[in-house]
Amino acid sequence: MTEQELCGECGVAPVRYVKGASELCEPCALWEAGFRRVIAPCPFTLREMECLQGLAEGKVYKQIAHELGLSASTVRSHLHNLYGKLGAVDRAQAVLWRLATDGFPRPSR
After folding, report:
1. For residue 62, how many other CB atoms are within 10 A of its CB?
2. All residues at 6 or more sequence positions from 57 whose CB lies less than 8 Å from its CB, including other chains
């Protein structure tokens, strides 16, 4: 993972603004400023979160795919997209992030 500070609101995106004692990413800062038509603070899709949860439970792509009714290549695509959003280079880093966050950021508002 990168060494960047993460948003104090969503805990996912890199910090871009400081508001009082909170350091916020751009989507959260815009939300706080009253702009409501912005990208949700949580950059992950539901499927990406479900696939990562499966990995965190020790499942392989085929098992995750079967449970979610997807193909293994679709699960792989969801996870590779999520790795890019996290800045993780492999599944181990993504799973460590998942376990360290004790859950996922709030879903979109």
Report:
1. 11
2. none
Selected residue with higher pLDDT from 13 and 56: 56
Question: How much is the average pLDDT of 90-105?
Answer: 78
pLDDT digits (tens, 9 = 90+) for 42-73: 678 889 989 999 998 999 999 999 999 999 99
Count Cα atoms within 13 angstroms, Cβ side, for 73: 0
CB 52 within 8 A of CB 85: no
Structural domains in the chain plus CATH codes:
1-43 (no CATH), 46-100 (1.10.10.10)
CA distance 34 to 17: 15
Q: Which of 30, 2, 4, 3 is nearest to 15 (CA)?
A: 4
